[in-house]
Amino acid sequence: MGLAAVDAVENRPLNEDSLAQHVPVSESVGDHFPSLSDQVVVASFAALNLLLGKLILSLDYFAPVQTELSLVWAVLLVGLSTFSLAFCFPPLLAAAARDIRSGYFSVEVAKAIVLSLSAFALVYALFFDFPRIQFQFLYESLPVLILALTVEQYLFVLFERKAVDNSEFSLLRLCQKVRRLEPYPDHAPVEAVVSADVIKPGELFKLGVGEFVPCDGLIIEGLVELRERRYSGLPVVKFKSKGHKIFAGSEVVQGEVLCEAAALADDSTITSFTHLLNERVRQGNDKFDDAKLIESRAGMLLVAIAVCLGTYVSGAGANIGVVASILACVLSAALLLRAARVWAYLPGLIHTTAFRKGMLFKDAAVVNKLAGTRNFVVDFNLRSPPGRVSILALEIVDERIERNALLSVLLALFGGSEDEFYTVATEHLRKELPTPTLHKASDVRIYEGRGLSGNVGGVEFTVGSEGFLIERGVYVQASEIIPVADREYYVYIAMHDEIVARFKVAGHFTADGRALRERLTDLQVHPILCSLDGTEEVDKAGKRAGFELPAIFGGLSEEQYLEKMKASVPAALLVGDSTPPSVIKEAASTISFFDDVRWNLDRSDVVLLSPSLSRVSEMFLISRLSKSVRMTGLLMLLLSFAVAAGLAAFGFPVAGLLAPVLILGMLLVYLNQFRLLLP
């Protein structure tokens, strides 16, 4: 009794009013006609034609008519350069004028000065020194300079918009419109598309494939598969039907449902976390002010140097072309200042990238601490070990059972439970089943810590331990009960009164801890297990997770624990409820799992919003990646500047060669920064 998936809803544009509420986006050249993409096309056309003309002019075949071709070349050069300037220059001048009026000497201002000088030199030569055009390198390099500056502007605007889009996590940007049912007294409710933020508790709305849940609510009718976001941007697989809760920010994968709103969008579960996330992003806003200050002061210094150098050279008798070429060469270095604004986005990107992966950083400084940490200490508690259970396999006992049909039934049974095992089982089953069939599960009863029972299509199913199944009247044969290793066990599935399948399950910190140790080793982080509990039990738990015996310390007193912690400094510490305060103080950074009862988000430097230990390795990966972005970006800029300086030192002090090298350096910085924008 599956429910067919409805067509995907139309992708609607983002609400631009919600963008950058905490990240100041500069008003860009791309906001004005002509568009930046058109400017790049026109500048490319001019540069390619002139390069082709120069190539033709240099061929020996055309030597007999070189004088005539030189004249044609000069006319073509002036025409295409003027056309390129006329098309690309006005929007840039408008942007530069706005920045100057606001007291901000931006890169756009420096670029406007470069092109103004070049345009002046071209016009001067056109009327007073036309024969020199075909021999002056400035004029030949001008189209290349225009193209380079235009491409850089295009890349920056593209990056800035993408960075702002990824520097916040807004529920209203995920879900902008919703299909609300408008009640009418004389006939059935009418469907109307409204803004998601106007939905009020008690109102009804519909959801289909590709749509996002606008607020916490309750399913009134239908079946649906969700990528559920509850506490963070990290989605988990859920299959839900009538009577099940749904949470704001979740995305419909298949199915269609009618829901009743239980809260306003701004009062939903995930918004409590997104407000905190965005507040922490806002705290890094001073970096934008610092970046603009650096850019403005350094830009004015470059202008002063350019003016002094140009005045000196012109006084020595150089023509206007040489003066303009040197000025353009010096001012092109202003493009290096763009990196300050690019890097200013880094803290916001780090916070949001972490949130999308299921964690909250207290501040950006935590990332720097983690990047320099080489030891990770797990405070291990035998009563409540960290991590979560892991499904090792699903074994079919009754050969008459069709595997995919059973998987779909189990997904329906597990959908309404928030229990850790059923959440993990749902993720495991969904990976095995590419296209599950949606079923309606009824009379589902969950017996905390023991199992569940429910009805699907008139068939009674029971899931749990062998003892629970026997209590429920299931016939259990001795051959069906399989002994397992320590910390591993089976969960059985019965249809009516017969066992048809079983899950093989690894307990907390077994498979999860093993995967953690392997990932941390790859990241060159040394994992250590410390515990106040008995030595033998902790040793067994550590060995099951693949920890080396010298890295397992059980049965510690608080003093011994403190000594081990001091010996591991600097270290990140995964804290638990019983972690001694003296040990916590010695940690360079602290990590804890989110407690949905206490809701204490200030307990540690990093709060993991998922119980999986894989979030720890993701945390270290983000810290390593952010450090790599900073270091490699700086190296790229220094290298590009060194190459440009080398060109100038060997007799090529021209903007046509210098600017492309600096543009290449900035391009590499953009691409490197984009690594944090990837999901």
Question: Which bin fits the share of residues in helices?
Answer: 40-55%
Oligomer, anyone?
single chain
Secondary structure: number of strands: 20
Radius of gyration: 32 Å
User: What would the average pLDDT be, to the nearest integer?
Assistant: 80
Low-confidence stretches: 1-33
* Tally of contiguous helical segments: 20
Main sheet, how many strands, which sense, barrel? 7 strands, antiparallel
The span between the termini is: 35 Å
Question: Keywords, please?
Answer:
679 residues, alpha+beta, seven-stranded antiparallel β-sheet, 20 helices, 47% helix, disordered N terminus
Describe this structure in words.
The protein is an alpha+beta fold and 679 residues long. The strands form three sheets. Strands 1, 2, 3, 4, 5, 6 and 7 form a seven-stranded antiparallel beta sheet that branches. The longest helix is centred in the first third of the chain and has 36 residues. The radius of gyration is 32 Å and the shape is elongated. The protein starts with 35 loop residues before the first helix and ends in a 6-residue tail after the last helix.
Short characterization:
This protein is an alpha+beta fold and 679 residues long. The chain has helices spanning 36-58, 66-101, 107-128, 137-166, 171-174, 269-282, 286-315, 320-332, 338-344, 346-356, 364-371, 403-414, 420-432, 466-471, 511-522, 535-544, 558-567, 581-586, 614-649, 655-673; strands at residues 177-182, 190-195, 204-207, 217-228, 236-240, 245-246, 251-261, 359-361, 375-379, 390-396, 441-447, 451-456, 459-464, 488-495, 498-506, 526-530, 552-553, 571-574, 589-593, 606-608.
